Amino acid sequence: MNTETQINHSERIKWIEQYIRQHVHRQLTREELAQAAGYSIMHFHRIFFTHVSEPISVYVRRVRLELAARQLLESNDTVINIALVYGYETHSAFGRAFKEYFGISPTAFRQLHPQAATYLISRRLLYKQKNRKDEPSVKRILLTGMSGTGVSTVLGKLAACGFKTVDTDYDGYSEWVAVDDDSAMPGESVEPNRDWVWRADRIQKLLSTEDTDTLFLGGCSPNMRQFLPQFDHVILFSAPAEVLVERLRTRTNNPYGKEPEEMARVLGLVETVEPLLRRAADFEIDTSVSLEEVVETVLAIVRDSAGSE
Question: Rounded to whole angstroms, how far apart are CA atoms 234 and 214?
Fold first, then answer.
């Protein structure tokens, strides 16, 4: 195929993409789109897929859902009215398609903070448009910090926004290992003669899997250093000592930190291990601010890095 022909195809496909967006509120048939582009149906499907990297039916569905999401965010129209505008005959059909694509229901999406909702739209668009085969499609973000800095809480909020999150303290990603007094592991072990560390095989399998566009992994482990090069960003959560003490004393989702020796260990790690994490981190967030502000800052970091690629 010569250069002139390639340019001609590219211009036609760009034009048909605009045509779809202008007429997305009504039924669009393959025959109409092929005719509008000036191709036979079979030739149109092949050319469109070559340039856009997804079938025409998938592209139309994606555009409808992304535009519907923006209308959910920017208007007070009811969910069913928006569903009807974008070609869905029932609330349930729209809800199923929306959740399958964004990982969250239309109603829950509307309840998100505007910045989180906007990023949810943009990350799906970036994921679909990123077609280079020589680059990993998954953004891997490590959230780390001492107990009480809020890593688990932020992971829960991100999961509610539809992101894939993994808390390495759970689901078999960490294990107890025996250590001795001369152990080279930084900081004091969790318990005398044993420590809580990442299971290298499971962590590596997780980081090698590409089943999402953004993975948020949370935790801190003595053996985490070997995995740091595989993360796109390492974000350190920190907070003043008095904030950590109050959080550990009052939190109800984790019993660790209630005993005086556990509290003392955490404060000791702030002095010994946190400086090491700070040197390894790309960003640091003071989590003494509101949860919403912390989540917004995390999303801004990921969004800005995606936009700069």
Answer: 13
- Residue 149 three-state SS: coil
Closest CA to 60 of 93, 101, 119: 101
- In the three-class reduction of DSSP (H, G, I as helix; E, B as strand; rest coil), residue 272 is classed as helix
CB atoms within 10 A of CB 236: 24
Contacts of 40 (CB under 8 A, 6+ apart): 34
Distance CA 97, CA 254 (A): 36
At 184 the pLDDT is 44
The parts of the chain modelled with pLDDT lower than 70 are 1-7, 123-137, 181-190, 305-309
Indicate the burial class of 75 (C-beta count within 10 angstroms; 0-12, 13-18, 19 or more). exposed
Q: What does the alpha-carbon distance between residue 1 and residue 10 come to, in Å, rounded to a whole number?
A: 12
Kindly state the tokens that stand for 51: 């340039």
pLDDT of residue 301: 87
Tell whether pTM > 0.70.
Answer: no
Residue with tokens 């700070």: 278
pLDDT for the residue numbered 252: 86
| Element holding 152 (H helix, E strand) | helix 151-160
